[in-house]
Task: structure prediction
Amino acid sequence: MRILDLGCGDLTEANTLVGDVVAIDKKIIGRPASHVTAMEGDFFDMSPEGDFDIIYANFSLCFNTREVIEKKLPNFLVHLKRKGVFQIKDFHTDDPVVKKRTNLHTEWFFDLVRKNVGAFTFQDEIVFEEEHHHAHHIFTLRAVKE
Ligand SMILES: C[S@@+](CC[C@H](N)C(=O)[O-])C[C@H]1O[C@@H](n2cnc3c(N)ncnc32)[C@H](O)[C@@H]1O
Result:
């Protein structure tokens, strides 16, 4: 199982997954486990080799502009194997942080996913963030490559 983590942060998820994980972030905090290849830099400037069973991005795409996402995200999605999963977790349109970031709960992003991956499902959640003492309205979008 090959997995690509775009915007891995402190490697919490990458280190606990089972499989060979390529984890990319502008600044990697923490030490990668033995099954994780950590790459530091802008993920949109990188092109990891080979194909992946899972490509995911948790709360990271929203820090990039619509223009860059539309231009460069498809370059990763061609590396998703057939029946592979593309998943993002990000902030819902009505979450206050969306005003400061790029809203992905929107039609242009859904079109990009439909075109480059396939049909998708949603899951909505309210998550309380201990560190900042407030709740976020988030969504998980999960698409399977056709
Ligand atoms: C809010 S953190 C989320 C970290 C982790 N995915 C999580 O869920 O805990 C967002 C991360 O995305 C990274 N990021 C955003 N855009 C990036 C880009 N274009 N290239 C590399 N890293 C990026 C940031 O450096 C940051 O570490």
In short: The longest strand covers residues 80-91. Residues 7-9, 12, 24-27, 42-44, 58-60, 63-64 surround S-adenosylmethionine (CB under 6 Å).
